[in-house]
Design a protein that fits this description.
The protein is α+β, with helices and mostly antiparallel strands. It has a domain of about 130 residues. It has six helices and nine strands; from the N terminus they run βααββββαβααβββα. A hairpin with a 3-residue loop joins β3 and β4. The longest helix is centred in the last third of the chain and has 31 residues. The termini are close together.
């Protein structure tokens, strides 16, 4: 039986805190030597405003609001530079109040057949009760599973499974989020230490989780 094909992959970092969106613009990153000057010059700036800043470059998309910063790799881009961009930013802005950080992996798979595609949803969300509840063929639209943090030093882990809106037909989307919460009295530097120490581990762990789900649903 053919294996699912990974078609689109990406990574993202989400920070929850208190930010000044207007400063997070391409030329500021270039001035801090966090982006090459050419990449900053060629950035596509959507908006720069006291309430929101959003732009994208050849490698990243960045959106900042007063309480949230989201940085996303472009599809299938190398993910390590995203980690370096965010850690460098908040080692520079070390006094920025940050309460939490999410390290995320997104993956879109092409299933080899409609049967294999349905099997993922049917095994993760058995349909017996739904078949009895109403007529027709029920289908899984969004599965969201939370593993609570096992200790203050460990992340909460959320796994999301959905039909892919980018790979059609027969695409399956996975997202795995590792959510680390700041302890009272800790600085932004502490969370950047977590980012640097845990980035590769969480990205690989996400891929292992998704691989296990795909193997189990195919059996």
């Amino acid at each position: 039986m053919p294996s699912p094909s990974l078609e689109i992959a990406g990574s993202s970092i989400v920070l929850v805190g208190s930010f000044n969106p207007a400063i997070f613009q391409p030329q500021w990153f270039a001035k801090q030597e966090l982006l090459p000057q050419a990449e900053a010059d060629n950035a596509n700036v959507e908006i720069i405003h006291p309430q929101v800043c959003q732009f994208d470059t050849e490698r990243f998309m960045l959106q900042v609001t007063p309480d949230r910063l989201t940085a996303i790799t472009k599809p299938n881009a190398v993910d390590a530079p995203l980690r370096d961009l965010i850690s460098g930013t908040f080692y520079t802005l070390e006094h920025t109040p940050i309460q939490a950080i999410g390290l995320n992996r997104q993956m879109h798979f092409q299933m080899h057949s409609e049967e294999a595609w349905h099997r993922v949803g049917d095994k993760l969300v058995p349909k017996d009760v739904w078949n009895e509840a109403y007529k027709g063929r029920p289908g899984m639209r969004n599965l969201n599973v939370l593993y609570p943090a096992s200790s203050p030093d460990e992340p909460a882990v959320t796994v999301i499974v959905q039909p892919s809106v980018q790979i059609t037909p027969h695409g399956v989307y996975f997202e795995v989020n590792f959510h680390f919460t700041q302890k009272a009295g800790e600085s932004a530097e502490t969370l950047m230490g977590i980012l640097n120490a845990k980035w590769e581990e969480t990205q690989k762990h996400a891929e292992r989780i998704v691989g296990h789900i795909l193997d189990w649903t195919a059996a």
